[in-house]
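step=encode ok
step=design start
structure_in=
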């Protein structure tokens, strides 16, 4: 009886996914027309276009490869298989053991790869460039999704969607992680919005449109399984189905329309990437001690600044990156006063750097009498107290930064700026120098 109940729930789930996929496909052109400021088409225009395409004859360019007719079939088969597996309104479906992150990621990657291959079937260079741009956008989306879903799977201890969503939703400590993960997954859905390959016509083009419809609802269902699994129905309890199904339809409809509206906007993808980085940071903070993260992050910033100097990047930016890294090390090592001195000096030196470029650079290179020098000394003391090797590495990085930056400066760098710009810049640098002298002056009476 339990098996029969789960089978019926699975069939209802598939029907609900297909129905929502069709509804979103009908509404997507209308919303995009409103977004573009043009007259919206009829609400059933997408269905009429699909019927017309299915009745047209197949066309095949003379330059097409033998796999030309296979790409739409592969794409729609992969997305259709993902739809049969992904949970919708209920957990505990018969297909639940197959609904894992690796399997769904592989099916979606296969569908998207087939679509890109169909684009590349064209012999025109412009299409190839367009396909390359789409591939880059897809790569960003896939990386974000794999990183975020991988982080959630590690936290839940399982790669099954029902296990991930159920465990994370039941643990209040994971609220921030789930929220950032949901924002990252939802906003990067725009990476997967691809046009139909232009050289395809007739039923093959109709297959690509069906694939896009199926893929959209699969991605949407994954997002809902991760961030909004409550209230989800239990496939083994028929009494929970009505509430679970109604709730899922409302959630999928509202979120789907919002994401269709946001898909053409570039800022959404950027915010999604930022949210994915925030998700990783939250997970690391919860799993690793904060001082360890600050020390590791500081090391990365110092290394990035040195690489920028060696590769002849902008000197001020590279030196500032090194000092930011040293400040992060200071916070991690407990040298808070020194780290704050470095941060304030960086701000003052960068504000004054446009007028007194060389003086601002000296302030960023931790040379006396500026505040970064006193701050670096405090950080180095803390580093040597913890480990002599760490202190030696930090000292070598600071000295190497100063040597490379000074060696790259042309002669006669100082110029006489206009007075009205020179006065505030000079005051800022004097403030940075006073910060550097302050620790020594405080220590004199003692």
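sequence_out=
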């Amino acid at each position: 009886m339990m098996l029969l109940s789960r089978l019926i729930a699975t069939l209802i789930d598939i029907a609900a996914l297909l129905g929502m996929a069709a509804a979103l496909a009908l509404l997507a052109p209308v919303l995009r027309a409103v977004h573009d400021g043009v007259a919206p088409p009829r609400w059933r225009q997408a269905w009429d276009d699909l019927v017309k395409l299915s009745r047209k004859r197949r066309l095949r360019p003379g330059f097409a490869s033998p796999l030309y007719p296979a790409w739409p079939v592969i794409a729609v088969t992969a997305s259709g298989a993902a739809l049969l597996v992904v949970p919708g309104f209920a957990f505990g479906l018969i297909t639940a053991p197959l609904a894992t992150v690796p399997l769904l990621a592989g099916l979606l990657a296969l569908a998207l790869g087939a679509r890109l291959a169909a684009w590349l079937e064209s012999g025109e260079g412009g299409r190839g460039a367009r396909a390359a741009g789409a591939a880059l956008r897809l790569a960003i989306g896939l990386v974000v999704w794999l990183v975020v879903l991988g982080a959630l799977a590690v936290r839940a201890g399982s790669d099954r969607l029902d296990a991930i969503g159920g465990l994370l939703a039941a643990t209040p400590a994971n609220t921030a992680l789930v929220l950032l993960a949901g924002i990252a997954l939802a906003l990067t859905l725009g990476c997967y919005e691809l046009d139909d390959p232009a050289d395809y016509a007739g039923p093959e083009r109709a297959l690509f449109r069906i694939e896009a419809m199926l893929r959209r609802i699969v991605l949407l269902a994954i997002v809902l399984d991760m961030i909004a699994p409550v209230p989800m129905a239990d496939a083994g309890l028929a009494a929970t189905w009505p509430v679970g199904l109604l709730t899922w339809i409302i959630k999928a409809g509202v979120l789907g329309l919002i994401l269709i509206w946001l898909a053409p906007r570039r800022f959404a993808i950027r915010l999604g990437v930022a949210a994915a980085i925030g998700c990783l940071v939250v997970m690391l903070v919860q799993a690793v001690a904060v001082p360890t993260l600050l020390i590791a992050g500081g090391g990365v910033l110092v290394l990035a600044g040195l690489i920028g100097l060696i590769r002849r990047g902008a000197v001020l930016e590279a030196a500032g990156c090194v000092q930011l890294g040293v400040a992060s090390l200071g916070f991690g090592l407990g040298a808070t006063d020194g780290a704050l001195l470095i941060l304030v000096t960086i701000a003052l030196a960068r504000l004054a750097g446009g007028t007194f470029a060389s003086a601002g650079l000296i302030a960023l290179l931790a040379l006396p009498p500026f505040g970064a020098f006193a701050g670096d000394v405090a950080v180095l003391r803390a580093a040597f107290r913890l480990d002599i090797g760490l202190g030696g590495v930090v000292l070598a990085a600071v000295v190497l930064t100063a040597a490379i930056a000074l060696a790259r400066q042309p002669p006669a760098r100082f110029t006489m700026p206009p007075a009205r710009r020179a006065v505030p810049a000079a005051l800022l640098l004097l403030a940075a120098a006073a910060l550097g002298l302050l620790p020594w002056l405080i220590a004199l009476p003692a």
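step=design ok
step=annotate ok -> The chain has two domains: 2-286, 288-443.
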